[in-house]
Write a structure and sequence with these properties.
The chain has helices at 14-17, 19-24, 83-87, 136-145, 147-153, 164-168, 177-216, 277-281, 331-340, 342-348, 359-364, 372-412, and strands at residues 32-35, 40-45, 57-64, 72-74, 79-81, 99-102, 111-114, 119-120, 124-129, 171-174, 226-229, 234-239, 251-258, 266-268, 273-275, 293-296, 306-309, 313-315, 319-324, 366-369. By secondary structure, it is α+β, with helices and mostly antiparallel strands. The protein folds into 2 domains: 27-174, Alpha-Beta Complex (Adenine-n6-DNA-methyltransferase TaqI, Chain A, domain 2), CATH 3.90.220.20; 226-369, Alpha-Beta Complex (Adenine-n6-DNA-methyltransferase TaqI, Chain A, domain 2). Strands 2-9-6-7-4 form a 5-stranded mixed sheet. The protein is globular and about 75 Å long.
């Protein structure tokens, strides 16, 4: 496992957890099989206000979409609804610290804990846990460990769906409340650190963008800078491709292959799917080098979303890769330029069924290239921010892997 430079406050307290004696104390006879509905005060789905009614949206009520349910804690939602939208739909308030399960869509079977009161769409199953019977964090980690079982429970023709009834009847082993609390405390210590690192990254990302705007947007000399296209300052700009999904020999290889839904305006480490050398050779997918900037060019809401490859990788045709000519500028400069231009890029997108960019539009997109001195001063400071974000993101990956390993060990000890 790659080590990262971190503050001592982020060191994992593995020794103090005394895990081995604790794991040995998890006697199966203390655990009882229960249904999820037996330990819940209520289990309900949400609802969606009519999308054609503008007055139902952009209010102050958080409204969660299932695509935001990604085995995480929810502190804010991408969209908000109004009181009018709430009253005229089946959306309903969900208590803080409920456990939310995505029932269908790309995130089906994934879970979240809402750290704020909120409302959700109808594809979310919202579980308000009875604190006298179960610890909500323990229920969350139980469902997190049960993704494969939940996935196998899905049913439906066009898409694979869960439902409130299936989730209410989901059975699992429940230990005494004191054991639940101990397990939740151990596993939550990982997620507490992950949350801290995410918050640090948000601050660093904001500082980096502020620095970019100070140097290159608010600069009174920018009218004197040379206008160039992205193609002029990149060694290569090209889209990706997808190996045939009907040929299984093309997948599960050792080459990272990303879809645009994985782009998160951050460094990209491990893709959900991988492809083989054979898959790469027999498709329009291309291998792009480490430090390539990738941008989503198809379909809202991902158009303009970015990533930076941390190793040689491929991606699908809905993305475009930019290999920056470091003799002219830096990847940090181009990344922040594209992030700052996202609204304009979305306006540039065109298409009937969905809003799209394309490679030619990216290549011909123009910018004012700063003087070498301004770029040099900016690069020194920006690299510091990006290096810290990289280290934090790498540590988040490590913490998640260690948490999941601990999760498996705990539940395997009683199965």
């Amino acid at each position: 496992m790659e080590s990262c430079n971190t503050e001592s406050s982020l060191d994992l307290p593995l020794e103090s957890l005394s895990l081995q004696p604790f794991l040995q104390s998890l006697h199966k006879e203390q655990w009882q099989e229960v249904r999820l509905g037996e330990v819940a005060k209520q289990i309900v789905s949400g609802g969606t206000p009519k999308s054609t009614q503008a007055e139902y949206y952009n209010g102050n009520i958080p409204w969660l979409n299932t695509k935001e349910v990604k085995n995480c804690r929810i502190y804010a939602t991408e969209r908000q609804i109004t009181e009018l939208g709430l009253c005229n739909s089946s959306a309903k308030w969900i208590d803080k610290n409920s456990v939310i399960v995505a029932m269908y869509g790309a995130t089906a079977g994934k879970v979240a804990i809402n750290k704020i009161p909120l409302t959700t769409n109808q594809a979310c199953c919202n579980i308000s846990v009875d604190s006298e019977k179960a610890n909500y964090n323990f229920i969350y980690y139980t469902l997190l460990d049960s993704f494969d079982r939940l996935d196998q429970m899905t049913s439906g023709a066009a898409q694979q769906n869960l439902n409130v009834g299936l989730i209410s009847n989901f059975t699992f082993l429940l230990p005494p409340l004191t054991i639940q609390q101990k397990i939740a405390e151990i596993l939550s210590s990982f997620d507490d650190k992950i949350d801290l690192l995410h918050r640090q990254n948000k601050t660093l990302e904001s500082l980096a963008l502020t620095l970019f705007r100070h140097y290159f947007i608010d600069n009174p000399n920018r009218n004197e800078w040379e206008e160039v296209s992205l193609d002029d300052i990149c060694l290569k700009i090209a889209s990706g491709g997808t190996p045939s999904t009907t040929i299984k020999e093309y997948y599960c290889g050792n080459i990272n292959w990303y879809s645009t839904k994985e782009f998160n305006d951050n460094f990209l480490f491990n893709s959900v799917q991988t492809i083989t050398e054979n898959g790469l050779a027999n498709s329009s997918a291309k291998l792009f080098p480490k430090d390539t900037i990738v941008i989503a060019i198809y379909a809202a809401p991902t158009v303009g979303r970015l990533g930076i490859l941390t190793q040689d990788s491929a991606f699908n045709q809905a993305a475009c890769g930019l290999i920056v000519d470091e003799t002219q500028c830096s990847k940090e400069f181009i990344f922040l330029f594209l992030k700052n231009e996202r609204k304009n890029l979305n306006l540039l997108a065109s298409g009937s069924a969905q809003q799209n960019l394309n490679v030619e539009k990216i290549k011909s997109y123009t910018l004012a290239l700063p003087d070498k001195n301004s770029l040099h001063c900016f690069n020194i400071q920006a690299k510091g921010f990006f290096d810290k974000i990289y280290n934090n993101t790498k540590q988040i990956q490590n913490l998640q892997a260690m948490r999941d390993m601990m999760l498996r060990r705990m539940f395997e000890s009683v199965n």
